[in-house]
């Protein structure tokens, strides 16, 4: 198995999910995708995580993002577990959960880390853009639930970087000052952005117009 790297095309696959069979690229369409794996259905941390993703449905939609989960459990397990997630999270899971009992997709995406317990998937995250390119990966151990506010934050950063051709500094969130990329001169930056400040020749920050 080759390790998937940033900029690689996210491999396509066809799989059964809790919402029916999907062809991944067709299902993604022109949206961004958050493909995330969890170790197992009917486990506590996973129940909290999948509920949080459902609670954030408006936030994903605002950003044209489709979430999709995966574990090596069966569709029948997913279907039975969803009512627990909904009940605990006071929410409704509407996004698909991939059923991957043969581990085909989990292995394709390197989601099984043999030194991290058994042969189920770890907590992997792939953020995939509308061109199907992998833009960000994260891997969390089984014991640690993810922070989906951080995943929304990095999607905001990636979408802002694409739209305004900028970079974003530490702890950036929507509306904060951006970093002027090294390829842009300070004169050009003053034409494109508001309130350009030069701390060092290599560290210029600015406000995106209209923010
Ligand atoms: C959990 O979701 O709680 C969990 C799953 C696998 C290993 C450890 C924790």
From TrEMBL:
Q: Which Pfam families match?
A: 1-cysPrx_C, AhpC-TSA
Provide a Gene Ontology MF annotation, just one.
thioredoxin-dependent peroxiredoxin activity
The UniProt record lists the EC number as 1.11.1.24
Cite the Gene3D superfamilies for this sequence. Answer: Antioxidant, Horf6, Chain A, domain2, Glutaredoxin
Protein keywords: Antioxidant, Oxidoreductase, Peroxidase, Redox-active center
Q: Where is the Thioredoxin domain?
A: 4-160
Show the InterPro entries listed in the entry: AhpC/TSA, Peroxiredoxin, Peroxiredoxin_AhpC-typ, Peroxiredoxin_C, PRX_1cys, Thioredoxin-like_sf, Thioredoxin_domain
Taxonomically, which superkingdom?
Bacteria
Family matches, as SUPFAM superfamilies: Thioredoxin-like
For this chain, the family text in UniProt reads:
Belongs to the peroxiredoxin family. Prx6 subfamily. Belongs to the peroxiredoxin family. AhpC/Prx1 subfamily.
State what this protein does.
Answer: Thiol-specific peroxidase that catalyzes the reduction of hydrogen peroxide and organic hydroperoxides to water and alcohols, respectively. Plays a role in cell protection against oxidative stress by detoxifying peroxides.
Q: What protein name applies here? A: Peroxiredoxin (Alkyl hydroperoxide reductase subunit C)
Q: Which organism is it from?
A: Brevibacterium paucivorans
């Amino acid at each position: 198995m080759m390790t998937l790297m940033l900029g690689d095309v996210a491999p396509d696959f066809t799989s059964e999910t809790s919402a029916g069979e999907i062809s991944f690229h067709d299902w993604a369409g022109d949206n961004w995708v958050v493909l995330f794996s969890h170790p197992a259905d009917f486990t506590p941390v996973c129940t909290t995580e999948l509920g949080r993703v459902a609670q954030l449905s408006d936030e994903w939609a605002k950003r044209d993002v489709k979430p999709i989960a995966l574990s090596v459990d069966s569709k029948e397990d997913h279907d039975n577990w969803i009512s627990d997630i909904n009940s605990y999270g006071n929410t409704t899971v509407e996004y698909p959960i991939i059923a991957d009992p043969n581990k085909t997709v989990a292995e394709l995406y390197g989601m099984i880390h043999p030194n991290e317990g058994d042969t189920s998937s770890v907590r992997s995250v792939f953020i995939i853009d509308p061109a199907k390119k992998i833009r960000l990966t994260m891997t969390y151990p089984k014991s640690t639930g993810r922070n989906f506010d951080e995943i929304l934050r990095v999607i905001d950063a990636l979408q802002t970087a694409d739209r305004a051709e900028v970079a974003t500094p530490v702890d950036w969130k929507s509306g904060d000052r951006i970093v002027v990329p090294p390829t842009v001169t300070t004169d050009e930056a003053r034409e494109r952005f508001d309130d350009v400040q030069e701390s060092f020749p290599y560290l210029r920050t600015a406000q995106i117009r209209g923010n």
